[in-house]
Design goal:
elongated; 38 strands; Beta-galactosidase, Chain A, domain 5; 2 domains; 17-stranded mixed sheet; eleven-stranded antiparallel sheet; mainly beta
């Protein structure tokens, strides 16, 4: 699991280049070291990745580890990037780039390049690391690093007042790449939350440790054309895989990223996760743990949404399971999937870290992905510092050494999914002890209350009730009914039912609302863990 609290705790670093139209006076204040120019193209980067995969993996050399280990959480927090050195600080474009420093938690050096020139004649120059780009205490161990050590990552800055020429951009950023192949963006609500990854290798694969390939090089195209768009190329490398990526990132209402990737396997991979999203879910209103924490809910995402190839919209609330669990939702050419934060009510969190503003991340394939499954991995956690949820696409065909993958997809970082179902959506899932009020509560029976809102439910004639359509992998249902939520809101209904299930194995439940043969809601899926209910909640 990734310790999420360390992801964006460091100060940033920035670089500006003399070769990009900066005035002589600005050059004197922001001079950086550049490597020699070399021809560049994305196609050439792809061929380089292909050639790398045909050779044994050779980790990139790192700066002295004994020095990096000294740059701990506290020391790293005192290293602040001098934004006078931001790449593209004086244009072109409106989004300067700043850089993260290496340290104990980010030891893999990442090399940064600026790309310029006319189409077909692009060239790249490396931005050479120098401690002068950073403000740091005189006794910081970072002073001991050699020149050219590299950076840990980068982020794009933005002005929030609409004027990129003011100093306002120095305080705000909208996308960040830091650590392995992880990256984040803010959505409509100006808040970081869950992460995406370039690739996921053997997440929760029995008998195999998870592998974390690194983005080892980034290439920033000099902005031209659309003012709200930036283009970054990346080289990926790891023991099992190499690859090349092209990110076309647009800053609008939220953040939209078009990703073009070419991946090449060095060796077999048990679970190759395409377009993975990584998030944190500790607990929510679904199951109330007594005294676990003072807050009502703690999570970056509360559910997995899927729009499958058959056109069905599915909502799967997240779990904090008793043991690591992998769920697969088989599909062919999915229309999209994502980890969402649907609950936007501050009162449900009561926390100044703004969980109610965390973005949702939707993955939209731009080409057919064939047969496979959206897979959801949930890992138990007892704190919010760990990312413990992964959602990804896994192809049906085995991922064998020598395989090549060329994938195009779009990432939507927004407050909501970009293509919501026209049917009613699930807005709450609640569990409690089964049975009926005023009677002894039977052991081993759980009550479920699932709320749906909007869509056709808002147009039901007075006195007409929707039907709850239920099925499960095992167990039996009782005390099933639907009712309008008594809050005066039109189209807000809930389905209630009890489930009796013996044994410890999880129970997969499916539910939707219908009227006659017409579906009124998206499909709610849930994985119920009887073992955790008995051991943690005593029911």
């Amino acid at each position: 699991m990734v310790k999420r609290r360390t992801f964006l705790t460091s100060a940033t670093a920035s670089v500006a280049l003399a070769a990009l139209g900066i005035t002589p006076s600005a050059m004197a204040a922001r001079r950086v070291k550049l490597g020699a120019a070399a021809p560049f193209s994305y196609d050439a980067l792809v061929e380089r990745a292909r050639a790398m995969a045909q050779q044994p993996y050779a980790p990139a050399p790192t700066p002295p580890r004994e020095i990096l280990e000294k740059i701990d959480y506290e020391a790293h927090g005192k290293i602040r990037f001098n934004t006078d050195y931001a790449l593209f600080a004086d244009g072109p474009g409106q989004f300067p780039v700043t850089f993260f420093h290496l340290g104990r938690f980010f030891q893999a050096p990442v090399h940064m390049f600026v790309v310029d020139g006319a189409a077909g004649k692009l060239s790249a120059q490396e931005i050479i690391y120098d401690e002068r780009y950073f403000d740091m205490p005189a006794d910081s161990p970072a002073h001991q690093l050699p020149a050219g050590s590299g950076f840990a990552g980068f982020r794009f800055q933005e002005s929030r007042n609409g004027d990129p020429h003011t100093r306002d951009w120095r305080k705000n950023d909208w996308v960040a790449f830091l650590g392995a192949s992880y990256f984040r963006a803010i959505g409509d609500l100006y808040q970081y939350g869950l992460s995406a990854r370039g690739i996921a290798i053997d997440v929760a694969q029995a008998g195999k440790p998870e592998e974390f390939p690194n983005f080892t090089q980034f290439y920033f195209e000099t902005p031209r054309g659309k003012a709200d768009t930036v283009i970054v190329h990346a080289l990926l490398d790891g023991p099992s895989i190499s690859g090349a990526y092209r990110f076309v990132m647009q800053r609008g209402k939220g953040v939209i990223m078009d990703v073009d990737s070419a991946l090449f396997l060095r060796r077999d991979v048990g679970r190759l996760g395409i377009a993975p999203a990584t998030s944190m879910y500790w607990f929510s209103e679904t199951v109330k743990a007594t005294g676990a924490d003072w807050r009502p809910e703690v999570h970056d995402s509360d559910g997995l949404a899927i729009w499958n190839g058959a056109g069905e919209h599915i909502w799967r609330p997240l779990n904090n399971p008793p043991h690591t669990t992998a769920s697969a939702f088989s599909d062919r050419n999915p229309k999209g999937f994502g980890l969402l934060q649907r609950d936007r009510n501050f009162d449900h969190y009561q926390d100044g870290v703004n969980y109610e503003r965390r973005p949702s991340l939707w993955v939209e394939p731009l080409e057919g992905w064939g047969e496979g499954a959206v897979q959801l991995v949930e890992i138990p956690t007892d704190d919010e510092i760990h990312d413990n949820v992964v959602a990804m696409w896994v192809a049906k065909a085995p991922a064998r050494a020598g395989n090549a993958y060329h994938l195009k997809y779009r990432l939507h970082w927004l407050a909501d999914e970009p293509y919501p179902s026209p049917l009613a959506r699930c807005v709450a899932t609640r569990l409690g002890n089964g049975g009926q009020p005023g009677q002894p509560r039977p052991q081993g029976v759980r009550k479920f209350m699932v709320e749906f809102k909007g869509g056709p439910l808002a147009k039901l004639p007075f006195g007409v009730k929707p039907e709850a359509v239920l099925s499960s992998s095992r167990g039996k249902f009782s005390y099933v009914f639907t009712e309008a939520v008594p809050n005066g809101v039109a189209g807000h209904w809930r389905a209630q039912f009890d489930l009796t299930a013996d044994g410890d194995e999880p129970v997969d439940i499916r539910l939707h609302l219908r009227l006659k043969e017409q579906a009124l809601s998206e499909t709610w899926l849930f994985q119920y863990h009887p073992f955790k209910t008995r051991t943690v909640y005593g029911a």
